[in-house]
Amino acid sequence: MRRRLDPEVRRGEILRAAAAAFATRPYDQVQLDAIARDAGSSRGLINHYFGDKRGLFIAVAQRVVERVPTVVRTDLDGSVEQMVDANTDAWLTLIESNREASLLFLGAGALSGDPELDRLQDDLRDRVVERILRNHLGDGEIPLAARLTMRATTGLIERALRDWATGRGGSRVRTHALVSQAFSRSCATCCPPWSPRATKNQAPGAPGPGAAAGRAAARRSRGRTRCRRRRRCRRCRSRRCP
Questions:
Q1: Which of 15, 110, 184, 227 has minimal Cβ neighbours within 10 Å of its Cβ?
Q2: If you count DSSP H runs as helices and E runs as strands, how many of each does the chain have, helices first?
């Protein structure tokens, strides 16, 4: 006998059962009757709340967009490489445990090209890019060029993840190396090297904790350029710059 529940509670139970079904079975093999049984509900209630199977999946996908970006941790300490490595590992684990739903989000499966799913994919990409850049730029304004660069990078990485999830992209270790290297290089390209991450007490737009080191590196670079132009090092008086 089914329990009488508040409509929102019942809707939530259906969504949880649907999320588990879509995560582990291909879209075409998911049955609404089985979801209704797992949720202690009925096929009629699923149709009432969500319309059909596509509508139910879109509702699950909306929850994914709201929750999944938090996989990208913004409270990690360490170098850029360490943060990228940890977040890449978390992403791969998420895809492994939700393979079928992840494939739909990565553009594979029965809903490929669905306009509503495409919109949700774009929203998820923007949220993930925001968290990645906040990790390295702090709370200041994010330059448009940085957003565009990281969005382009995530597009390439999504394809690599899709190939890995479908068995065409090699091992997890190889995919991890590819993804982490791509993100690290994009961060080096679009994030100023002297502000890898703003501190909590840092004013928006202020230089990051590595600002002094970055300025020193820039001065050394200018000094080497002058040496090459004059063909004599000012420090050691030799003909070649060290």
A1: 110
A2: 10, 0
